[in-house]
Task: inverse folding
């Protein structure tokens, strides 16, 4: 018997209504992220000790209590984090357990190896892509990483999948990009074939 | 309206739609809880379990369960403000305090429940003591902090009990059934789940004594509160622990006649509770 895949999860949030995906969703937040964003809202995802180890079976047992809501509203699980696309085996095994009727979304930076994106494409129903900024300089200054892989992965998803499955989040990031930068990012993304946008602000208070 | 209350209201509407579409009788009452609502509570959860149970019953009878996509319109009509409402503020470690809008942040991890299936855990089964006669536990769930506590100082578990004890539960059932409870003869077998919050749900009649009393007994079981289980420390001290369990139970008829006075329970102060630690803030 192969050893069961496990993943570290630092938070599960039930009954999210249209916050991240259609219908009633449960957000499952994985630990581990390749980025180090200046204003990261889930820095707990960087720290292993703030997480719990789950198998897909245990997670399924825990979240299936909302199955009726998922089915009635076309909802399901939104995998976030952290970076969910680093958890290929776990998400594949989870899909086997939950069947095809739950909507499985990934809230991702797409800054992961192409093999991961390809392996999960048939498993996921949609993506919420946090693009940060299309300008490589701004992206690197804000996240500490290059965005070359992000753009390659996004392009592949748009070309070989259904663009309607993808929502790209474009934030206004104080001290890192301007309104013009955001507009420029959106124009470039439209050219690539992105149809759905979520433009929003990081608010300093 | 607070976000939790708004969520609760929408989820209740979804339950109502599922019930209506599948001809399931679902009696909901206006929630009067004034505190911090998380969008769901044991009562809401028990309604979901009840719906699942009823849908399962219908499927066994060859009827289709109408659920898929039923409430999509309801959600899209939900106030736009719902989507924009911050879920959790997470702060940057530097001097700049930042929130994003809409936030993707999540609430801190709550204490987790673990399920222990007794048939697969003979060692734990040996430690389990029954608080009631004619009552068997198939498996139970406990919170992780309780597991740690028990591992550290526990020697034996005692199952949850109906508030006031078995006699009070039987009096409650008898009172609800009326005269019939005192005239029937034989045994009725039930299986049910008691949540760690002390709410019974998923009550199934495994052996009926009279079909007419099946539902009144289920209703009575569903509305009765349960006390938490106990465990014994190595020094012999009894401590309460939050524990839910899957149970089977036999009721022997006839029951004693019961009046309202028989249902009165003297509240005793609870001492030595194992209290859940506050969830740790995931802030940096």
Result:
């Amino acid at each position: 018997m192969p050893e069961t895949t496990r993943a570290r999860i630092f938070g599960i949030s039930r009954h999210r209504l249209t916050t991240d995906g259609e219908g009633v969703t449960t957000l499952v937040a994985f630990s581990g992220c390749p980025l180090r964003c200046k204003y990261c809202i889930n820095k707990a995802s960087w720290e292993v000790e703030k997480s719990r180890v789950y198998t897909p079976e245990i997670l399924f047992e825990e979240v299936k209590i909302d199955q009726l809501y998922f089915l009635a509203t076309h909802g399901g699980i939104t995998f976030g984090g952290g970076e969910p696309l680093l958890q290929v085996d776990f998400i594949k095994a989870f899909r086997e357990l939950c069947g095809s009727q739950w909507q499985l979304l990934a809230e991702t930076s797409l800054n992961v190896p192409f093999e991961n994106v390809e392996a999960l494409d048939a498993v996921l129903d949609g993506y919420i892509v946090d693009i940060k900024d299309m300008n490589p300089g701004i992206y690197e200054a804000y996240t500490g990483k290059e965005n070359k892989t992000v753009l390659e992965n996004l392009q592949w998803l748009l070309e070989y999948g259904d663009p309607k499955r993808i929502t790209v989040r474009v934030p206004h990031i104080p001290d890192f990009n301007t309104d013009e930068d955001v507009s420029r990012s959106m124009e470039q993304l439209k050219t690539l074939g992105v149809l759905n946008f979520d433009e929003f602000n990081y608010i300093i208070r | 309206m607070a976000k939790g209350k708004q969520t609760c209201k929408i989820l209740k509407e979804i339950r109502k739609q599922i019930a209506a579409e599948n001809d399931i009788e679902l009696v909901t009452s206006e929630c009067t809880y004034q505190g911090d609502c998380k969008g769901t509570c044991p009562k809401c959860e028990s309604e979901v379990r009840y719906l699942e149970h009823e849908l399962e019953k219908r499927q066994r009878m060859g009827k289709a369960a109408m659920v898929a996509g039923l409430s999509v319109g309801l959600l899209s009509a939900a106030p736009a403000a719902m989507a924009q409402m911050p879920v959790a503020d997470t702060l940057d470690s530097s001097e700049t305090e930042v929130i994003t809008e809409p936030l993707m942040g999540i609430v801190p991890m709550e204490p987790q429940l673990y399920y222990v299936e007794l048939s697969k855990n003979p060692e734990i089964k040996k430690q389990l003591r029954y608080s009631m006669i004619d009552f068997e536990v198939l498996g139970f769930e406990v919170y992780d902090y309780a597991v740690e506590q028990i591992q550290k100082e526990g020697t034996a578990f005692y199952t949850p009990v109906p508030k006031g004890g078995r006699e009070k539960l039987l009096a409650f059932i008898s009172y609800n059934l009326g005269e019939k409870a005192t005239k029937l003869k034989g045994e009725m077998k039930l299986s049910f789940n008691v949540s760690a919050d002390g709410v019974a749900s998923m009550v199934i009649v495994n052996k009926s004594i009279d079909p007419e009393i099946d539902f009144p007994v289920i209703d009575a079981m569903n509305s009765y509160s349960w006390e938490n289980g106990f465990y014994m420390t190595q020094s012999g001290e009894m401590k309460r622990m939050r524990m839910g369990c899957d149970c089977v139970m036999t009721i022997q008829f006839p029951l004693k006649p019961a009046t309202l006075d028989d249902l009165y329970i003297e509240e005793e102060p609870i001492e030595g509770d194992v209290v859940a630690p506050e969830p740790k803030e995931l802030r940096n």
User: Anything to note?
Assistant: The radius of gyration of chain B is 22 Å.
